[in-house]
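EI: anyone free to look at a 164-residue chain?
SC: sure, send it
EI:
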Amino acid sequence: MADSSFDIVSKVDRQEVDNALNQASKEIAQRYDFKNVGASITWSGDTIVMAANSAERVLAILDVFQSKLIRRKVSLKAIDTGEREPAPSGKEYRLVATLKEGLDQANAKKITKIIRDEFVKTVKTQITGDEVRVSSKSRDALQEVIATLKAADLDVALQFVNYR
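SC: here you go
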């Protein structure tokens, strides 16, 4: 019997992020509490820039954007806001958030360590680039790995793809 396997990746659906950003931008343009405060949210590449004339308004923009992301089923772990404190830039405050994609080495090692500690002999892991391949003879063991990783408190959004 051949080994079954799947890949653990951390990817962001950019179309869903773009849709959430457009919805947040429309809501910011229409809401009364954002009138005459220079509130805006834009993105280019991997960075999302939120700007307004006060730090509280920038945090409110972030809250609106996060609620739109949750509605579109995009994990908030995929958005990195840094220290989450708006920085003054001239007459306005700005908060820069970035999209986090791919598993870095530290998180990949953390994931493989969790799997090796829980499933000593039945499951094999292999780090390839920015993803982790998990293989086993038992499909039930692979399902248990997925359940264990979903329950683990990791600081990256995980997806399980290529289940064979």
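EI: Residues 146 and 160 are 8 Å apart (CA to CA).
SC: 👍
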